[in-house]
Structures are given as structure tokens and as C-alpha cells.
Design goal:
alpha/beta, Rossmann fold, 6 helices, globular
């Protein structure tokens, strides 16, 4: 059984049963919830992939297009979906909310195991979208421009329990915009799940300080133009 198979198996256990892993240390029994074990393994595999195939570019840009958000490794994506589901097990999520375009694949992977539909916020008004929308302005760190995001009001209601999912969390602009849509709809925010968080940009810490449940599968503490990446654990 591979490591990926192992933590995927644990995710299945979490969804089907509420169990804990027990370890002994000098005669003392400690209990570690399996979702923590799962997250640690998910972090390790994603971290190793970032170190192997990620590319650090000038301006604190981490390129992961070779496996996550351009050319997509479907096996890695599936495991990320399992772990997001495990981390928010039992929350009775009714909608997974993300933003086009890079967040959609990860959101769909999570939706497969959460068993909830994906709603993605659009960045441009098209002829096939209703004029009756919730809207929020979001600044794109990657593109260095502000855009208005929107979802049709029919697709997000006060009865929804929403999990926000995205590929990256940096300064938190995208997630704050998505949170605004949830608030406008009067829906309940369950939490936020991201594949990669740039911890040194502070967005995740700010959200957590507000009491938001933010879960990141790989949390980068620092990186430099020479390609050195340090993860926070």
C-alpha cells in the first residue's frame, strides 16, 4: 500500500466512523484524532510535490502549474479532495464555493467526497448569467488587478452551509470576497480549505484571528527567489 493509499484509507474511516488513533509513550496513552493524522500525511505528500515540481518566481510567486492548476495530476487532486472532506467531516455542507478558474478543479475533487454541488464565482458578466447576483470586488495577487466576482442569487441561499475551497491563500483577498458573497446570501460559512497557503503573507492568520476555520494542506512559512521553500508545521 502506498502512502497516498494509506491516508486516503484513513479519510474513508473518518467519514464512516468517528475513531481515534491511540499511541503509547512511557505508559501514557495519548489519543490523536484521525483527521489530524490524515492532514499530516496530506501535507507531507503535497509538500514533497511542491519541493520537487514547484517553481519560485520573482515577487513571491509559486508556480505549481505542472501538477495543480494548469496541468493537473488527477491522482494528487483526488487525494486532496479526500483530505478536505475528512477535515470537514460531519459539517452537513450543502455547497462548495470557489472562484474561477484555478479553484474549480480542487473544489470538484472535494465535492465528490463531501457530496455537495460546486458553485464557482464568475469574474465576468456573460449573457447567460442573471442580472440578479451577489457581487464582491477581489484583488488578484497574480494578475495585479481588481475584478468583480459574482454568483446568481438562485444558487446561494440562506439555507446553505458553505465550504469555501481554493488552490491558494496569500493575502486572503479571494477568500474574503467569497465570504462576502456568503454573507450577502445570509448563508452559514462552515470554513475554508486551501491546497497551498503562503503563511508569510498573513491572509490565513488574519482569517483565523476572526474565528474562521481555515485548513491548509501545505502552509509555506517562507520562500525566496533562489527556490528555497520552508513549510510551517
Amino acid at each position: 500500500m502506498t502512502e497516498a493509499d494509506f491516508f486516503g484509507y484513513n479519510a474513508h474511516i473518518i467519514q464512516e466512523q468517528t475513531k481515534s488513533q491511540r499511541t503509547t509513550d512511557g505508559g501514557k496513552i495519548t489519543v490523536t484524532p484521525l483527521n489530524i493524522v490524515v492532514k499530516e500525511r496530506a501535507m507531507k505528500i503535497l509538500e514533497e510535490r511542491i519541493l520537487r515540481d514547484g517553481k519560485v518566481q520573482a515577487g513571491n510567486v509559486l508556480k505549481v502549474g505542472g501538477f495543480l492548476n494548469h496541468l493537473i495530476d488527477y491522482q494528487l487532486l483526488d487525494e486532496i479532495g479526500k483530505e478536505i472532506s475528512a477535515l470537514f467531516c460531519g459539517q452537513k455542507i450543502t455547497k462548495i464555493l470557489t472562484i474561477e478558474a484555478s479553484g474549480i478543479a480542487i473544489a470538484c475533487a472535494a465535492a465528490h467526497y463531501v457530496c455537495a454541488p460546486v458553485l464557482f464565482a464568475k469574474k465576468s458578466k456573460t449573457i447567460n448569467i442573471s442580472s440578479d447576483c451577489y457581487c464582491a470586488e477581489v484583488y488578484s495577487f497574480t494578475h495585479q488587478v481588481s475584478k468583480m466576482i459574482m454568483v446568481e442569487k438562485d444558487f446561494l441561499t440562506k439555507d446553505d452551509k458553505v465550504l469555501i475551497v481554493d488552490d491558494f491563500l496569500a493575502n486572503g483577498a479571494a477568500i474574503n470576497g467569497l465570504m462576502s458573497l456568503v454573507e450577502q446570501a445570509g448563508a452559514e460559512l462552515v470554513g475554508c480549505a486551501v491546497a497551498i497557503e503562503k503563511g508569510f503573507q498573513g491572509g490565513g492568520d488574519t482569517l483565523r484571528a476572526k474565528g474562521i476555520n481555515v485548513q491548509s494542506l501545505a502552509l509555506i512559512d517562507s520562500m525566496d527567489d533562489d527556490g528555497h521553500i520552508v513549510f510551517r508545521h
